[in-house]
Amino acid sequence: TSILNISLYYLPLIYYIFIYRDLGGIVAKDHTDFTHLVLPQLVRTHKLLFAISKSCHIVSEKWLEDSKNAKSFLPENDFRLPFENFNQKYGVDLENTLQVSDRSKLMKNKCFWVTPRVVPSKKIITELIESAGGKLERIRRSKAQIEAPGTAAAQ
User: Fold this and answer.
1) Beta bridge partners of 59
2) Per-residue pLDDT at 150 exceeds 80
């Protein structure tokens, strides 16, 4: 079990790392190697998107607090963050998405072309697309090529 927190500047980060380690968890070094994402609230970041595509647990800080008091990791389902504001802000249904059993295929049969100056970096966006089963096009197609019969976008 490993953890990745949303922000290095989040003040209680060190406190939560100590709790997690005391319970036997391992702190992840980056966005590619974690099983839990602990957040004070849902925020759309590449870490959240990786957590979704990797089928990781997305939990509130209360999970760590209550696990500390119980002296063992508690069931994650009791510590889900509220989705309503996030869903409304981004026009998604995160709860429905999280119920998909194999989220590593959310972007299967989808092709993407990433602009050179995308934020976060093109490297991270590429990893995210590929981790969710999508394909990255190396050469940008014209609108006519994208809409041509027989292409994924036209179907």
Assistant:
1) 38
2) no
Lowest model confidence (mean pLDDT) among 3-7, 38-42, 85-89, 112-116? 3-7
Check whether 126 has a pLDDT greater than 80. yes
pTM for the model stands at 0.78
37, 47 in Cβ contact below 8 A?
yes
Q: What is the pLDDT of residue 11?
A: 53
**For residue 148, what are the CA distances in angstroms to 108, 110, 140, 141?**
20, 15, 14, 11
Residue 133's Cβ-count burial label (10 Å; 0-12, 13-18, 19+) is middle
